[in-house]
Each structure stands twice: as C-alpha cells, then as structure tokens.
Design a protein that fits this description.
By secondary structure, the chain is of the alpha/beta class. 38% of the residues lie in helices and 17% in strands. Bound molecules: nicotinamide-adenine-dinucleotide. Nicotinamide-adenine-dinucleotide (NAD) binds next to α3.
Length: 305
C-alpha cells in the first residue's frame, strides 16, 4: 500500500496493519525525508518492510493503495474548487497503480474526495466495490466527538452518521443519533431543527467548518484524517466487515439517478465494499441527501476525463 501527505497514511504503520508499506510521491526529497524519518522509528512498530520511490513498481502487488496525493486546499478554497487540479494528478497516477497492482482496493483521500473517487473508478476500470472514498468516515467521527462533548459521554458510545458529500452539503442523520439505543430525538423531538432550543444543529455546522478551521490554524489536517484512514485500513486488511460511512457508487440509492459517489454506511472487508446498509432516512434527510448528490453532479458533469 502507499500514499503520502502529512502523516495521513503513516499513522496506520503504528498499528502494524501492514507487513509492507510502499511510499510514492512526486517530490523526491520529501519522499526520502519521510521514509528516513519513518525508518528511524522502526524499533517502535511492526511493519518490517518500508520502501519508497517515484516509480509505481515499488508498490507492485499491493492489497490496498491509499491515494493522498494531490494539491492541498488553500485557505478560503472549498474542496470542490480543488477538483480540476486534482483530476489531472489522478490521471497521471492511476494507470501506474492498476498496472502494478491489478487486484488492489483503492482508498481515495485526496479532495474533493467524492468526485475524485468517481474519477479513479472511471480511469482505473476496476469494479466500484474496490474503489472506496474516505468520504464521511471523518465527518461522522467529528460528529460523534462533538455529540459526546455536549453529553459528557465518550464518542464511541454516541452513535450517529453524517452521510452524503464529504464537505459543505453533508447530511447529519439526526433521526438515527442514539446513546445505548435511546434515540436523542425521542427525548428532544426538535433535535437538529431550527426550532430546537438546545441548538444541536450547530454541531453539524461545526462538523462542516472543522476541516477549514484546522486548515486555517495549522495549514493542513493530519491527525484525525490519519486515524480515520487507519480505521478504514484495519477493516479492509483484517477483513473486519465493520460498517463505515464511506464514499461509494450511489446510483439507484434514495432516488439518485446519476453516477456519483457519496457516503452511505458500507460494510468493508478484504473484498472492499461488499454491502451497503440502507438506512431509514426521514423525508427531510432523504431530500438533503439528494441535494448533496446534485451538488456533486453539478461539478462532476463538466469534468473532462
Ligand atoms: N478526505 C479527507 O477527509 C481529507 C483530509 C485531509 C486532507 N485531504 C486531502 O488529501 C490531499 C493531501 O493533503 P495533504 O495535507 O497531505 O497535502 P500535502 O501537500 O502535504 O501532500 C500531498 C502530496 O502529494 C504529492 N503529489 C502531488 N502531485 C503528485 C503526483 N502527481 N504524484 C505523486 N505525488 C504527488 C505532493 O508532492 C505532496 O507530497 C489533499 O487533496 C487534501 O485536501 C483529505
């Protein structure tokens, strides 16, 4: 598996998920520096082989390829604004990946992640089940962290999903938010609406803003996305079949007619996405999900591949 960026993939090394890690980057000095820095820590983790290079042959026969290559968002730039710059990069890297690892799964992290997941699917010619966008796995983690903060409960016990686009049009599924199976909506029927005196809706605004905030404050995001990618990597490489809100081909779901990718709860294992969990959304949530799909389609339809 491979990928680079500010630690986005490197975090998975620390959990010993892979026997072998291959790093590829267009910037030779950065690549060498990152590789040496990781190798110097070999004593402290269990990935015995770390290789790197500019040629895709170093990644040959990967089970999982993680794409974090790309232009980073500039402060004030939306994820969707990044699209054309990163489409060009995907076109330059995907053929080399598929040629060297025809049986791999590809996990796309680069933004705008939903559109680039579609782009990688198209260019790679691989089945959609093997093309996974990191999507709202991070947004849902941020959502659960913030719910946990408000309730004083650990996020692992606060259940809930953010679906749709990883970004501004994402959809918080308030109808499903629960702690120990108790729906928060049963305690506060106005949950997530403008009429809600407890203002839970602000939590979703914070989820949408949090990536931009970290970007503004430290120039990039790394820890949360790195941990989120590690979570996905574990499910795939260890065939855990956990449910993750990740970006997948959504045509035919919830009345979506176009070939777009967005996040819905998916079962992830060694074969990639084997099943999609059809969540019972209320009519408002379903309409927001279709709007999110439209937002993506409006950008995607003009792409030249
Ligand atoms: N999906 C998410 O939740 C999420 C979260 C954080 C970052 N991201 C995205 O991940 C991407 C990387 O972010 P970052 O902060 O790590 O940026 P970064 O600039 O630190 O790393 C990007 C790397 O890509 C490399 N690169 C550029 N063109 C390449 C090419 N043609 N071939 C190989 N390597 C190439 C660069 O040299 C650089 O090392 C961005 O698109 C960013 O928006 C996504």
């Amino acid at each position: 598996m491979w990928g680079l960026g500010h630690g986005i993939c490197d975090v998975s090394v620390f959990q010993g998920l892979a026997d072998e890690l291959a790093l590829i980057d267009a910037d030779a000095d950065k690549l060498k520096g990152e590789t040496l820095d990781l190798l110097h820590g070999s004593l402290f983790f269990n990935t015995p082989k770390i290789v790197s290079g500019k040629d895709y042959s170093v990644s040959a026969n990967s089970k999982l390829v993680i794409i974090t290559a790309g232009a980073r968002q500039k402060v004030g730039e939306s994820r969707l604004d990044l699209v054309q710059r990163n489409v060009v990069i995907m076109k330059s890297i995907v053929p080399g990946i598929v040629q060297n690892s025809p049986d791999c799964k590809i996990l796309i992290v680069s933004n705008p992640v939903d559109i680039l997941t579609y782009v990688v699917w198209k260019i790679s010619g691989l089945p959609a089940t093997r093309i996974i966008g990191s999507g709202c796995n991070l947004d849902s983690a941020r959502f659960r962290y913030l719910i946990g903060e408000k309730l004083g409960v650990h996020p692992v016990s606060c259940h809930g999903y953010v679906l749709g686009e990883h970004g501004d049009s994402s959809v918080p599924v308030w109808s499903g938010v629960n702690v120990a199976g108790v729906p928060l909506k049963s305690l506060n029927p106005a949950l997530g609406t403008d009429a809600d005196q407890e203002q839970w809706k602000k939590i979703h605004n914070q989820v949408v803003e949090s990536g931009y905030e970290v970007l503004r404050l430290k120039g990039y995001t790394s820890w949360a996305i790195g941990l989120s990618v590690t979570d996905l990597t574990g499910s795939i490489l260890k065939n855990l079949r956990k449910v993750h809100p990740v970006s997948t081909l959504a045509k035919g779901l919830y009345g979506i007619k176009e070939e777009i990718f967005l996040s819905v709860p998916c079962i992830l294992g060694r074969n990639g996405i084997t099943d999609i969990v059809k969540v019972n959304l209320n009519p408002e949530e379903e309409s927001l999900l279709r709007k999110s799909a439209e937002t993506l389609w409006n950008v995607q339809k003009d792409l030249e591949l």
